[in-house]
Fold this sequence. Notes:
Number of strands: 9
Order of helices and strands: EHEHEEEHEHEHEEH
Strand content: 25-35%
Radius of gyration: 18 Å
Strand order of the largest sheet: 2-3-6-7-9
Oligomer: single chain
Number of helices: 6
Shape: globular
Helix content: 25-40%
Distance between the termini: 33 Å
Amino acid sequence: MSKVWHLETPISEKQIRELKLLDTVYISGKLWGIRDRNLGRELDDGIPLPEGVNYEGYPVLHEACGYKKEGDKWVFTSGMGTTTSTRMERWMPILIERHRCRAIIGKGGLLEGTTEACRKYGCVYLSVVGGAAAYYDARAKIINVFWPDLDSQAILECEIKDYGPLFVAIDAHGNNHYLNLRKKAIEERQKIYDMLKIKPLPWAPQWIERPREKNY
């Protein structure tokens, strides 16, 4: 049976390893907003993170929100939405290994490389409720913006309170809810093919058991 957790940041590895697949999580404290261009600047171009940015022990969010500066404050101009996490799969394993962030928050799922990095280094992937950006917006405010020259793709330092509900889609024990669903769907499809005595189309996705060792 799933549990409900209320966590304060920074979050310890021990706390993260207590979470199970499909548990519900609310988080208070500091959260970092990240996305494609700031990930690419650091992890592809090799430019160190700005002074003051430290993901260790904190959640990172695949954010997709609008913001601007009013006086000396940064404010949201749209809901604190999330962008699709799957396309950031290539960066997530190294991000977890290098920075020891304890949670990645997003939507759309992450794949085998992130699943293995979460298991090895103690991290989880938390899925948001789709279409609820305005609801999440009410639980967050921007403290600072780093690399502002990246405009909407800068790094955000946010303060959050009871940010959630989020559900554990990848736990720190090698379990991935989205991969489980994909495997089940392919197995069920095969049962239908067998019942109808037809062969699968040659381009239909097949389930492949991938090695659990580091594959990124």
